[in-house]
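User: I'm putting together a small comparison set for a docking exercise, and I want a reference complex before I start. The sequence is below, and the ligand is zinc ion. Could you produce the 3D structure with the ligand included, as structure tokens?
Assistant: Of course. I'll restate your input first, then give the structure tokens for the complex.
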Amino acid sequence: MLTLELSVPAPADLGIELMGVPEGSPVAIEMRLEAVMEGVLASGTASTSLVGECARCLNPIEDTLEVTFQELYVYPESDAGADEADRLEGELFDLEPVFRDAVVLALPFQPVCEPDCQGLCLECGVRLNDHPGHAHEESVDPRWASLLALETDIASPSAGDEQIRSAGRGASTDEE
Ligand SMILES: [Zn+2]
Ligand SMILES: [Zn+2]
């Protein structure tokens, strides 16, 4: 058995749409290699940094990530199926696909900057956590706008009455 500690630069395109490991950022790996019947069992942890953006408010997020992995790398001459096991190439094996899968599985599908992030105002786009109590006048759906015009037409005769009445009052005041 062999234990290894190493730091390697992160490969490109490691992550999901909203969150990932910046290319070249250090990945700290602590690994245990065990000789088994069919090959070498590699297990350990890898820690690295994450950057991304909040799925609700798009604010930048910085975080760290630690993943665990375990993979059996079989000897080239082993008759284990090539699809179900990775193979040793001489004394080398490729940890990257295993690390990549572990990272992608560990990432939140919808990363958030804080658990109670309220997201953005649907009307003006301000970040709601920065503006508690943010609200707009009740807006009118454009599909109802013509109905609103109709309502104004219906209402206008009474508004006219009001004008006539106030005009009448004005006249009576003049007479006094
Ligand atoms: Zn947010
Ligand atoms: Zn708003």
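The beta strands are 2-9, 14-15, 19-21, 26-35, 39-53, 60-74, 86-87. Residues 162-173 have pLDDT under 50 and may be disordered.
User: Thanks, that's exactly what I needed.
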